[in-house]
Automatic annotation (TrEMBL):
SUPFAM superfamilies: Glycerate kinase I. InterPro entries: Glyc_kinase_flavodox-like_fold, Glycerate_kinase, Glycerate_kinase_RE-like, Glycerate_kinase_sf. Pfam families: Gly_kinase. The keyword Kinase applies. This is Glycerate kinase. The lineage of its organism: Bacteria, Pseudomonadati, Bacteroidota, Cytophagia, Cytophagales. Keywords: Kinase, Transferase. The keyword Hydrolase does not apply. Belongs to the glycerate kinase type-1 family. One of its GO terms (molecular function) is kinase activity.
Length: 378
C-alpha cells in the first residue's frame, strides 16, 4: 500500500512538514508495511520555501539583504535539490509581518532586497527561479527589485528615484542598459493565486494597499504612480503587461516579474511540480491532504483542492484532514472521499492550536485504522 501525504500548513500551529510527518506517524503505527511519502504543500506564501526544500532535499542559504523599510536584515533563500533552481519567499525579505504595525506604509516600503537575492543567486550560477509572492508589505510594482538588478528609473533631473512606492509617479525616464547581464538567461516561475491587474479599482493599490497601511489618499496616489510607471515600462519593452491576470500581485511585483518575461502560475502548481507530486500520486492507493481551516473557500484554488484534482486524474481517492471545517464544507465532499476536523471535543481556539499535533495524530490514527480495515475486506 502506498500513501501520499500532501498537506498545506495549519497556519499558527503546524508547518506543512509537521502536519505531514504527524500523519505519517499514524500510518507507521497502524500500517507499518505501507510506503508513506510526505510532500508538504504551499500556495506561494509562507511555507513555500520550507516545503520545497524538504521535498527536493534542497539547502537553505543564509545571507543579508535590504528589508522592506530599507534596513539591512538577515534573511535566506533556497536552492532545490536539482542544484539549478533558487527559491525565494517574498515574505522573508519584504513581508508585511516584518514591518511593525505603526510603521506600515506601502508608499515607503521596497522590494529592493528581493532583487539583491536574485542577483546573488545569479552570481552563484543559478538560472531557474521560483518566487513566492505571498505576504508582501510593498506596493512599488517591482521598482525596487528591478533597480537592484541594474535598471534605471530616473526623475526629471535624471536622478535615480528612491526604490519605494511613492516614487512611481516621479519616474520620467527608464534606462535598462545596465541590467544584470545574465538576466536574459534566467527563467522565473512566480507562485501566486492573485489574479488582479496592476492598476484601477481592482488593482494592487486599491485592493491590497489598505491592508498594508495605505490611507484612501495614498491609495489614489499609488495607483496614479503605478500607471505612470507601467506605461513607461510597457513603452520601453513594447509589450502590454499591466492587465495580465496576476500583474497586481504583491503590490504590483507580479508586473515587475512580467517585465522579466516571468510565468505567473498557481502557487500550488509550482510547489507540486517542483516536488514531483504527480509522479508520486500515480502509484498511490490513497492521498491525504489538509489545511488549517477548510470551507467553501477551499474550492477557490487552495492547495488541498489542487491535490484532490490531481489524485482524481489517476482515480486515487483523497481524504481531507484539517484543523477545522467551516461554512460550506459540505461542498467539499464532491472532491474528497471524506472530510475531517481534528478537534474532538468542545474547546477554545487557543487550546486547539496548542494541542494541534496530538489532535491531528489521534484523528489520523482513526482514519488509518479505517483504511487498513477496508484494505483487509477487499
Amino acid at each position: 500500500m502506498k500513501i501520499v501525504i500532501a498537506p498545506d500548513s495549519y497556519k499558527g500551529s503546524l508547518s506543512a512538514k509537521e502536519v505531514g510527518n504527524t500523519i505519517r506517524k499514524a500510518f507507521n503505527l497502524e500500517i507499518p508495511e505501507a510506503e508513506v511519502v510526505v510532500i508538504p504543500m504551499a500556495d506561494g506564501g509562507e511555507g513555500t520555501l520550507d516545503a520545497l526544500l524538504f521535498s527536493t532535499q534542497g539547502q537553505s542559504v543564509s545571507t543579508t539583504a535590504t528589508g522592506p523599510l530599507g534596513e539591512r536584515i538577515n534573511t535566506c533563500y533556497g536552492i532545490l535539490g536539482d542544484k539549478e533552481t533558487a527559491v525565494i519567499e517574498m515574505a522573508r525579505v519584504a513581508g508585511l509581518l516584518m514591518v511593525p504595525e505603526d510603521k506600515r506604509n506601502p508608499a515607503l516600503t521596497t522590494t529592493f532586497g528581493l532583487g539583491e537575492l536574485i542577483a546573488e543567486a545569479i552570481d552563484k550560477g543559478l538560472r531557474k527561479f521560483i518566487i513566492g509572492l505571498g505576504g508582501s508589505a510593498t506596493n512599488d510594482g517591482g521598482l525596487g527589485m528591478l533597480q537592484a538588478l541594474g535598471a534605471g528609473f530616473l526623475d526629471l533631473e535624471g536622478n535615480q528615484v528612491k526604490p519605494v512606492g511613492e516614487s512611481l509617479q516621479k519616474i520620467a525616464r527608464l534606462d535598462f542598459s545596465n541590467l544584470h547581464p545574465n538576466l536574459k538567461a534566467c527563467k522565473f516561475r512566480i507562485a501566486s493565486d492573485v489574479e488582479n491587474p496592476l492598476c484601477g479599482e481592482n488593482g494592487a493599490s486599491y485592493i491590497f494597499g489598505p491592508q498594508k497601511g495605505a490611507t484612501g489618499e495614498q491609495v489614489m496616489a499609488l495607483d496614479k504612480g503605478m500607471r505612470n510607471y507601467a506605461d513607461l515600462v510597457e513603452e520601453q519593452l513594447n509589450n502590454n503587461l499591466q492587465n495580465i491576470p496576476g500583474a497586481g500581485a504583491a503590490g504590483g511585483l507580479g508586473f515587475g516579474f512580467l517585465a522579466l518575461s516571468a510565468e505567473i502560475i498557481s502557487g500550488s502548481q509550482v510547489v507540486a511540480e517542483a516536488a514531483g507530486l504527480e509522479d508520486q500520486i500515480k502509484e498511490a492507493d490513497w492521498v491525504i491532504t489538509g489545511e488549517g481551516q477548510s470551507d467553501y473557500q477551499t474550492l477557490y484554488g487552495k492547495a488541498p483542492l489542487y491535490v484532490a484534482n490531481l489524485a482524481k486524474k489517476y482515480g486515487v481517492g483523497t481524504i481531507l484532514i484539517s484543523g477545522g471545517l467551516g461554512k460550506g464544507h459540505e461542498q467539499l465532499l464532491e472532491h474528497f472521499v471524506s472530510c475531517h476536523a481534528i478537534v474532538n471535543a468542545p474547546m477554545q481556539v487557543e487550546q486547539a492550536i496548542a494541542d494541534a499535533e496530538a489532535l491531528l495524530f489521534s484523528c489520523a490514527r482513526n482514519i488509518t485504522r479505517l483504511i487498513n480495515k477496508a484494505s483487509q475486506l477487499k
